[in-house]
Amino acid sequence: MLPISITQRYRKKYLVLQREETTIKATYQTTPTTAILEPVIEIYGRAPLSGEVRISGAKNSALAIMAGTLLCADDCRLRNLPALADIDRMGQILAAIGVKLKREGDVLDIDARNIGQSQAPYELVSQLRASFFVIGPLLARLGTTQVPLPGGCAIGARPVDLHVRGLQAMGADVRIEHGVVHANVKGRSQRLSGARIYLDYPSVGATETIMMAATLAEGETIIENAAQEPEIIDLANFCRSMGAQIQGDGTNTIVIQGVERLHTTDFPIIPDRIEAGTFLCAGAITHSEISLYPVVPDHLASAIAKLREIGPEVVIEGPDRVRLVPAELRATDIETLPYPGFPTDMQAQFMALLAVSEGNSLVTETVFENRLQHVAELQRMGANIKVKGNTAVVQGVPFLSGAPVMSTDLRASAALVIAGLAAEGTTVIQGLKHLDRGYEDIVSKLKGLGANLRRIEP
Ligand code: UD1
Question: Which residue minimizes the CA distance to atom 39 of ligand 1?
């Protein structure tokens, strides 16, 4: 007899489990939960998904644009804002600086007319690295500011030297004292001056800081080796909607002509490409046909290309909708890179998928130095992964098994949810503060697709 392939074995097991689904559900609903001290998500794996999921506004766009509203001494309205812990934190930081905010559903009204010299509190800045992005707009608008250094985080050291060097090139005097960055514009006009700035690395945050600061600077600023992420284009569109003069965003050279002031705007945030990619992985790992709306298919190009290599087809059904058609999963190699390369923010979710794809995959992380912490948790679920330096060698296994696991960072927790959806038995995910930072209503959205999971509060 020919040896049975991993995929065939996987399929057989999957079918048997699907047939037993009613029994599994009954067991799941009556299983007493062990004492918990913090919120957890409990997933009973193997439920097939179907239907359509709504994708929220992009977290990373929204964070930069919220900082960008500081440029405008007028009201701004942001639409399609996701409901996330990170967005709430950014709101608290703006409020601490004197901004008035009013949120109704996904609409946020921001009035930054009367911003003061008060410093964003370190407790908030340390929890949200993106809060450092206020430095550019504050300096451009007030000519002086103090922002605490955000410090490192779970995925790496994450310095801000490129932000600082960019602002210095535009004439700012920057000192770091007692963990706080003090920035002042020299001269009586207190206005930054345009400059030619080459970034050693196409940092998303540094490109955003410099671009925002340059909108109100005197003269022309050119950012070379700029980041090209869709969130950069969204921020540039937002600034343009207030009257800024920006060209070249989405390429590696951005040219900004400073203007004296910016005016009111009403601006919708783009859909979150990382949330969309996460749902595509959830569909692929459960062999399910699901649709995603709204999305910008172009923003998902590298994730779609990798999914096709792995097996599933992604059908682009219009300008803002895609459908995942499941298929057998096979290994592929992934290397994270700045956009348009494969996003570091999708690496963990794809690793969960490759953990049950037939064959050996290499996953190389080049953007952050410490972003393979999810490997240990996936191993607890039966994944066969070895790490050497910044590369993980993933040998596909027929199935994962549910286990208690701990989230280590935002995208790592999404990877554990994806693994849990496909695993045999119950997965209990702890450390939800990470997931809550970046996924709006993930439990309800997955339930809407037919997943068997619940959030349990202590
Ligand atoms: C943004 C995203 C984050 C994503 C990352 C890379 C937000 C809020 N976050 O983070 O989700 O994972 O882009 O796509 O938009 N670096 C320096 N010096 C600097 C700045 C960055 O050395 O001054 C390094 C970082 O340590 C990292 C690399 O550059 O190794 C990329 O970082 P960067 O693109 O700046 O990421 P963030 O803007 O922090």
Answer: 205
